[in-house]
C-alpha cells in the first residue's frame, strides 16, 4: 500500500533542507575565503619583505622580519627538517608559498607547523622566508585565526537553529487556519449547509470553504431529490401491489389447477415487488438507529422467514437445511426481520441447484449457499450487484446497529454471517 505524503512534513523538511544547504554553503564559502585571506595576507607580507631585501640587502632586513614572525633562510639545507622532509628543493618554486606540517619528533612535541615562501635575490639567488607557528600559552596570530574559524562554525550552527525555529513558528502560524478549515469541514452536516461560513483569515481559504459548501449543497440536493423520489415511488407502488396480491389470493381459490402456475408467477412477482418497495423505503429512512428493541425468539422469526420465502425454491433442485438453536434476543425486531429476510431471500433467489444451509447458534446467523454450478453464483452476483439491492440495506442497518456482517464468496460457495451485538442477548 502506497503511503500518502504529508504536506506539513514535505514543506518543513524541504525548507529545513534548503536552509541547511544555504547555511552550509555560506559557511564553506566563508571558510574558503577566510583561508584565502590568510594566504593573501601571508603572500603580501612576504612580497613586501622580498622587495625590501632586493632593495636593501639581507643584513638590514633580516632583523625586522621578526615583526611578522618570519625567518630568513638563504640555503635549502638550512631549512627546518620538517620542511625538507615534506618538499624537495625543486618543489619549492620561486614566487609561491607552501604549508608544511611539523613531522619531526621535536615539531610534533611543540605542535609546530611552517609557512614557506620561496624568493629569489637578483645577485644572491634563491632564499626562503619561513613563518613558524606553534602552540604557546600566549595567543599568536595563528591561534587567533583558528579561534575565528571556530567562531564561523559556531555562528553558522546558531543561525541554522534560529532559522529552523523561525520557519517552524511561521509554518505553524500559517498552517493554523488550514487546520481550522480541516476541522470545520469534517464536522459539516446537512444542518450546517445553510449556516454562515466562518472566516479563516486568508482569501484563498475562504474561497475553498465556499467551494466545499457549494459542493456539499449540490450533493445534498441530489440526495434529497433521490430520497423523495424513492419515497414517493415506493408509497405509490404500495397500493397497486396490495391490490395485485389480494386479487391473486382471491384468484387462487377460483381458477383451475391448470392455470395455477401462471398465478403462482404473478404471486411471486408481487411478493418480490413488495419486498423491493419495503427495501427502498428503509433505504431512505434516517431514523433506522432509533428503532425500539424488544424481546423475541430469533429462531421463530427465522423459521417464519424461511416459510415465507420458500416459494423461491419451487421448481429448483435445491435442498434446504436449517439448524436453529432456541435463542431469545433483545434487539429491534423490525430491523432484524429486514436483515434476515434480505439474506434468506438472496440465498434462495440466486441459486438453481445445490444446497442452502441456515444455521443459528447463540447470537450468530449463518446462511451458506453451496451451488452445483460454478458460473451461477458469480454471474448472479455481478448482475445483481453483490446479491441484490437488499444487501445495501443490510449493510447500512448493520453499521448503524453495530452488528457484524461478513460475506465470503468462492466459486461454488457463498457464505453470509451475521453476528448481533451482545447487548440484550438471552439464550
From TrEMBL:
Coiled coil: none annotated. InterPro entries: HAMP_dom, HATPase_C_sf, His_kinase_dom, HisK_dim/P_dom, HisK_dim/P_sf, HssS/ArlS-like. Residues 172-224 form the HAMP domain. The lineage of its organism: Bacteria, Pseudomonadati, Pseudomonadota, Gammaproteobacteria, Alteromonadales. The keyword Nucleotide-binding applies. Its EC number is 2.7.13.3. The keyword Protein biosynthesis does not apply. Residues 232-411 form the Histidine kinase domain. The chain crosses the membrane at residues 152-175. SMART domains: HisKA. It comes from Shewanella sairae. This is histidine kinase. GO terms for molecular function: kinase activity. Pfam families: HisKA. CDD domains: HisKA (cd00082). It is a multi-pass membrane protein. It catalyses: ATP + protein L-histidine = ADP + protein N-phospho-L-histidine. It is an enzyme of class 2 (transferase). It is found in: Cell membrane.
Amino acid at each position: 500500500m502506497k503511503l500518502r505524503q504529508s504536506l506539513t512534513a514535505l514543506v518543513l523538511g524541504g525548507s529545513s533542507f534548503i536552509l541547511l544547504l544555504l547555511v552550509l554553503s555560506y559557511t564553506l564559502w566563508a571558510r574558503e575565503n577566510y583561508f584565502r585571506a590568510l594566504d593573501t595576507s601571508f603572500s603580501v607580507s612576504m612580497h613586501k619583505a622580498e622587495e625590501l631585501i632586493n632593495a636593501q640587502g639581507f643584513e638590514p632586513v633580516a632583523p625586522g622580519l621578526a615583526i611578522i614572525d618570519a625567518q630568513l633562510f638563504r640555503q635549502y639545507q638550512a631549512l627546518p627538517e620538517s620542511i625538507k622532509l615534506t618538499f624537495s628543493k625543486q618543489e619549492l618554486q620561486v614566487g609561491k608559498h607552501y604549508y608544511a606540517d611539523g613531522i619531526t619528533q621535536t615539531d610534533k612535541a611543540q605542535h609546530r607547523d611552517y609557512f614557506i615562501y620561496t624568493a629569489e635575490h637578483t645577485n644572491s639567488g634563491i632564499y626562503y622566508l619561513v613563518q613558524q607557528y606553534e602552540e604557546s600559552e600566549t595567543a599568536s596570530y595563528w591561534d587567533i585565526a583558528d579561534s575565528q574559524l571556530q567562531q564561523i562554525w559556531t555562528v553558522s550552527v546558531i543561525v541554522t537553529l534560529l532559522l529552523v525555529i523561525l520557519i517552524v513558528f511561521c509554518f505553524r502560524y500559517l498552517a493554523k487556519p488550514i487546520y481550522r478549515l480541516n476541522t470545520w469541514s469534517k464536522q459539516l452536516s446537512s444542518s450546517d449547509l445553510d449556516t454562515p461560513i466562518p472566516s479563516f483569515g486568508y482569501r484563498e481559504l475562504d474561497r475553498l470553504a465556499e467551494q466545499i459548501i457549494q459542493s456539499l449543497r449540490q450533493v445534498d440536493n441530489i440526495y434529497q431529490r433521490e430520497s423523495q423520489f424513492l419515497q414517493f415511488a415506493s408509497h405509490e407502488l404500495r397500493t397497486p401491489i396490495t391490490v395485485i396480491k389480494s386479487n391473486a389470493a382471491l384468484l387462487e381459490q377460483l381458477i383451475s389447477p391448470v392455470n395455477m402456475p401462471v398465478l403462482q408467477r404473478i404471486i411471486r412477482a408481487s411478493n418480490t415487488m413488495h419486498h423491493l418497495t419495503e427495501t427502498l423505503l428503509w433505504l431512505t429512512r434516517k431514523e433506522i438507529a432509533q428503532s425500539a428493541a424488544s424481546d423475541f425468539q430469533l429462531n421463530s422469526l427465522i423459521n417464519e422467514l424461511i416459510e415465507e420465502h420458500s416459494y423461491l425454491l419451487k421448481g429448483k433442485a435445491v435442498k434446504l437445511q436449517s439448524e436453529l438453536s432456541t435463542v431469545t434476543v433483545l434487539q429491534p425486531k423490525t430491523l432484524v426481520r429486514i436483515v434476515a429476510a434480505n439474506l434468506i431471500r438472496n440465498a434462495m433467489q440466486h441459486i438453481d441447484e445445490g444446497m442452502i444451509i441456515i444455521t443459528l447458534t447463540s447470537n450468530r446467523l449463518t446462511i451458506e449457499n453451496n451451488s452445483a454450478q460454478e458460473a451461477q453464483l458469480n454471474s448472479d452476483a455481478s448482475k445483481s450487484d453483490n446479491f441484490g439491492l437488499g444487501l445495501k440495506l443490510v449493510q447500512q442497518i448493520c453499521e448503524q446497529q453495530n452488528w457484524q456482517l461478513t460475506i465470503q464468496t468462492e466459486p461454488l460457495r457463498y457464505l453470509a454471517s451475521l453476528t448481533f451485538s451482545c447487548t440484550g442477548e438471552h439464550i
